[in-house]
Design a protein that fits this description.
By secondary structure, the chain is of the alpha+beta class. 16% of the residues lie in helices and 46% in strands. The two termini are 15 Å apart.
Length: 280
């Protein structure tokens, strides 16, 4: 079984091309759990399966978190898969990628910089009160696409000085908050200046902080723009793994045309020889 490993601003993925359909879909969760394990396999935040398109796209992308759960979509993953699709001859410099959350368009800006249009928000609540660690937080809750990707955005100006383990515990508790019926990715955000943010995301499915989150960056940029704390034009988001840029259109409590751009990196390609990998 051949694989490619890529990362976008530190958000890393294993990619498997299954256009032939040789791998049964019921084996995808097992593959994700096995291949994403950092101690015993390749290691990654998620697994992406390239599939045949069904609705007029260039190809399909199924995204699985490292715990084997199916994700609706992944912004950094979509940017990486857009580069993969271009370099493997699956699509041109502009492409249409079918995801579980809907159609995503990708664009090659340069050899390593790719831009994707994230799924439009289908639900926005700019002030949802949630509690964790004995404290209440006023967060913005945004769902992208349909079925949606849920994100909670919490402005925390003392994020840099907060104890990381305590922050992780807060993120874990909020991720499972009953205020978020389907769970949520939790994005802690610090405003650094005009259109410049620092962001740290606790991702469901990974169940820890990741070095970057594309849909989280898009949701954070949209939330702060709608709150009047950014203007929605080339918002710079400093993730632990690198900088991402977001631009969007908005009006009152609505946001659309959220474009995410940033770096991609081809890490390695090879053959999976795992003797413990048992697929039915």
């Amino acid at each position: 079984m051949q694989f490619t490993k890529m990362h976008g601003a530190g958000n890393d993925f294993v990619i498997i091309n299954n256009l032939s359909g040789e791998i049964a879909a019921e084996n995808y969760p097992v593959l994700a759990r096995k291949l994403c394990a950092r101690q015993t396999s390749i290691g990654a935040d998620g697994l992406m399966i390239v599939t045949k398109p069904r609705n007029g796209g260039d190809y399909g992308m199924l995204f699985y978190n490292s715990d084997g759960s199916l994700g609706e979509m992944c912004g950094n993953g979509a940017r990486c898969i857009a580069r993969y699709g271009y370099e493997k001859g699956l699509a041109g410099e502009t492409q249409r990628i079918e995801t579980t959350a809907g159609l995503v368009t990708g664009e090659r800006l340069s050899k390593r910089i790719y831009k994707v249009r994230l799924n439009d928000p289908t639900f926005i609540d700019l002030h949802r009160i949630v509690s964790a660690g004995g404290r209440f937080y006023d967060c913005a809750y945004i769902e992208l696409g349909n079925p949606s990707i849920p994100h909670a955005v919490i402005i925390m100006q003392d994020m840099d000085t907060a104890d990381r383990d305590k922050l992780r515990s807060i993120g874990r508790e909020l991720r499972f908050s009953p205020e978020f019926p389907r769970g949520a990715n939790v994005n802690f955000v610090k405003k650094l200046g005009d259109n410049e943010l620092e962001i740290l995301t606790y991702e469901r499915g990974v169940e820890d902080f990741t070095l970057a989150c594309g849909t989280g960056s898009g949701s954070a940029a949209a939330a702060l723009t709608l709150l009047g704390l950014a203007d929605g034009k080339n918002v710079r988001l400093h993730n632990q793994g690198g900088e991402l840029n977001v631009s969007l259109s908005f009006d009152e409590n609505k946001a659309w045309d959220i474009y995410l751009s940033g770096p991609t990196n081809l890490v390695c390609e090879g053959e999976i020889l795992d003797e413990d990998l048992m697929l039915s």
